Description:
single chain; alpha+beta; Chloramphenicol Acetyltransferase; six-stranded mixed beta sheet; four-stranded antiparallel beta sheet; 11 helices; 29% helix; 2-oxoacid_DH_actylTfrase; tricarboxylic acid cycle; Single_hybrid_motif; lipoyl
Amino acid sequence: MLSRSRCFTRTFGRSISALRQSNNVLARRAASGISSSQCISVKDTLNCETRPSIFQIRYFKTTAAHRNEVITVKTPAFAESVTEGDVRWEKAVGDTVTEDEVVCEIETDKTSVQVPSPAAGVIEELLVPDGGKVEGGTPLFKLKKGAVGAAKATPAPAAEAPAAAAPPPPPPTPAAAGPIPTTMPPVPPVPAQPIASKPVSAIKPTAAPAAAPADTAKGARSEHRVKMNRMRLRIAQRLKEAQNTCAMLTTFNEVDMSNITEMRKVYKDAFLKKHNIKLGFMSAFVKAAAYALMDQPAVNAVIDDTTKEIVYRDYVDISVAVATPKGLVVPVVRGVEGMNFTDIEKAINELGEKARKNELAVEDMDGGTFTISNGGVFGSMFGTPIINPPQSAILGMHGIFDRPVAVGGKVEIRPMMYVALTYDHRLIDGREAVTFLRKIKSVVEDPRVLLLDM
Length: 454
């Protein structure tokens, strides 16, 4: 009896010790994430009763429901002068997009607004059809955040034509073809009656196979229709308004580009090295126009038709016409009267880069007191530009061509450019227009006029 009591006491003590050790082990394993449950069994060697002890640890998982959240993206707010636009989709339903990736583009009558994705995810639904009209705040599409788009299934090859894909069988070997025949094949029997024949006229002609589409399309006179975008419609409207409103008249002159060409040739490498930008001819004409506009303020003025007043401006903001695939845009270089050649070149380059990337905002094209259009980059020799309303005048530059000119009583070959000034004759008289154009000619031909303020 005493022996059994000692055995029980010894076994119970060992069990308590083992349980404590197992608790420590379980705590360490739970912390390291090895196992979610452990079973400890203690058995004495003296045929004592086995008593299992089970310990279980529970874990909690955080939900990922917020990753599959579906959000609705709306049309961004437009500028004050823009009320609506047309949607052109870059993505389709089921496409995977990353954060800030462009999903669609809204084309207004002045510029295009890109709509990026606010987060990474999958396009679930397009709420506006392609080409649809939207206003600020209109729902555009639904985006499932954090989802992965399913790969688009590719059509499986047809199972009915395995022979087309299988390689042709190899020719049989002589052993497999059998022995070579040694006797002549039997002669076919002669028919008892002659074979019936038909006259050629009784044979019906069969239809010729259809010719290839390329052959039928050769020489075809086809046409197709393309909807005018909003920017092109707005340009057409403004140009027609200018024709209907302004009393437009154009005066011409020619500019000897010898000095400015020589100056550019001498300093273009040093200019590029210092300012990291190329020296062009536009800066010379923009600066010359600003100088002439300050000298002839009527060309820089505008008629306010509502109040029947003339508005004179003591600042010069020049719109530079830039051709884009969607139409002509006119970003504005502001405060030209206080700029030098370097400032003008940097501003034009920055605006031109934004126009090529379709990143021009309405603010970049709003305003402007005078416009310069350079058709010479396309090889234009002569032309009459149309006023950009509500402005009162526009300068047209053209190509530089070597022509014979009289210089000091002698005929010389000089690089010449024709320039044209179209102006509103309601406000600008011929004297101001001709004087303005001659001032531009003198500054471009000899930039030292700017230094001497002549």
